[in-house]
Design brief:
There is one protein chain. By secondary structure, this protein is mainly alpha-helical. The chain folds into two domains: about 150 residues; about 70 residues, Cd81 Antigen, Extracellular Domain, Chain: A. Helices cover about 75% and strands about 0% of the residues. The protein is built from eight helices and two strands. It has a two-stranded antiparallel ribbon with strand order 1-2.
Length: about 240
């Protein structure tokens, strides 16, 4: 069978949007791999002391993104092939996959919005636990390990302290910021604030990518339905 006119235009538009969707899947996969191997997050989330590990919620989210990116690339290829072949079966399968992906994206967006502070809050709690251990007497067996962990946070984020004390100088007198030899506005920002900024920036990137993909998916679903109807109507009657 052969499509003509408007239906042929829809066919190539669907192919184009599917190709963009396939590329978007590659972008999501690339962003997820970047987040997984980002120098700052890797150093912070791989930190540990006395058997206590940094929370793994962020990495779980990243692994979900990796799976989503790979799935998007597969579905995008399926849509491109189905459009070129003018196959109702492939187009129907593609449309079903789009519906599932769109529903999962909406659910993930809602979950992400509700838990947008979870990752930074967990890591802040981890930092605070080490902070309190670093205030223990010098003969405490856990103080050295906790102080080493704080050095990782301070050097990675260029910060110091929890931000709930009177000033940075109090942290220095406590010897918590002994690894920060220079006291200036450049290093006076609290680690609480730095941690929130670090993950908020990454969440904004993910949110923008998700919004663009959602718009593409809506257009794809519309074009798929139109093309599927055109293919059915163009099929010879027996």
């Amino acid at each position: 069978m052969a499509l003509t006119g408007f239906s042929q235009c829809i066919k190539y538009m669907l192919f184009f949007f599917n190709f963009i969707f396939w590329l978007a899947g590659g972008v999501i996969l690339g962003i997820a791999l970047w987040l997984r191997h980002d120098n700052q997050t890797t150093q912070l989330l791989s930190a540990e002391y006395e058997g206590n590990h940094a929370p793994g919620t962020f990495y779980i989210s990243v692994y979900v993104l990796i799976a989503v990116g790979a799935l998007m690339m597969f579905v995008g290829f399926l849509g491109c092939y189905g459009a070129i072949q003018e196959s109702q079966c492939l187009l129907g399968t593609f449309f079903t996959c789009l519906i599932i992906l769109f529903a999962c994206e909406v659910a993930a967006a809602i979950w992400g919005y509700i838990n947008r502070e979870t990752i930074s809050t967990e890591l802040i709690s981890f930092y605070d636990a080490a902070y309190m251990k670093a205030l223990e007497p010098t003969d405490s067996p856990t103080r050295k390990a906790a102080s080493k962990l704080l050095e990782t946070f301070h050097s990675t984020l260029d910060c110091c302290g929890k931000g709930d004390d009177n000033s940075l100088f109090l942290d220095i007198r406590r010897n918590v910021c002994a690894d920060r030899p220079t006291v200036s506005p450049l290093v006076s920002q609290s680690c609480h604030m730095k941690l929130r900024d670090l993950f908020s920036e990454k969440l904004h990137i993910i949110g923008l990518a998700a919004l663009v993909i959602a718009v593409i998916m809506v257009f794809e679903m519309i074009f798929t339905m139109v093309l599927c109807c055109a293919v059915r109507n163009a099929a010879p009657a027996y």
